[in-house]
Amino acid sequence: MTTLFEDLATDAQELTTDRGTARLWALTPTVYVTSVVGHMEVAHGELFVRFAEKRIREANGKVNVFHDWIEMTGYESRSRQRLTAWSLANLDAYSEVHLALRSKLVAMGVQVANIALGGKIRVFTTRVRLEVELRRALKASDGSFPAAAAARSTGARA
Which residues, 6+ apart, have CB-to-CB distance to 127 below 8 Å? Predict the structure, then answer.
C-alpha cells in the first residue's frame, strides 16, 4: 500500500529481510518519511542512519521526519540502541520528529528512547494523525513539494 505521498518521493530506499521491511523516502530536502512492516532488525536501523545522514547533509535547514511504524511488530534491542544513540548525537539537526505506532512493545521502546531524547518525538496511534502533521509540515516547507499534492488525500488508513 502506498501511503504518505510515497508515490511522490524524490529518493526512496527499501530493505526487506526475512522478518521485516523498511521503506524510506524524501518528499522535500527537509521532509522525509519512514515505514516499517514487521520486525526491525539492525540492518534496518543502519539503513535509517545512512538515509538520515544524507538528508541532513543535503538539507537547507532543520529536518522533519515522519515515522509510520503502525505495522511494526517488534525490533531488535540493538537497533533501538543504535537509533537512539545516533538520534541523540544528531538531535539538533531535527525540527520535528513524529511517529505513529500500534504495538505496545514498540511503544515501550519509543517511550524509553524519547526520554533520552528529551521528549523530541511526538507519538500518535493512528496513521491519519501522522498524515495531518505531515501535510502541515509540507505546506510550511521550502516550497519544493507541490501544494496541490499536500492538499489531496493519500488514503492513509488508521
Answer: 3, 4, 68, 70, 100, 156, 157, 158
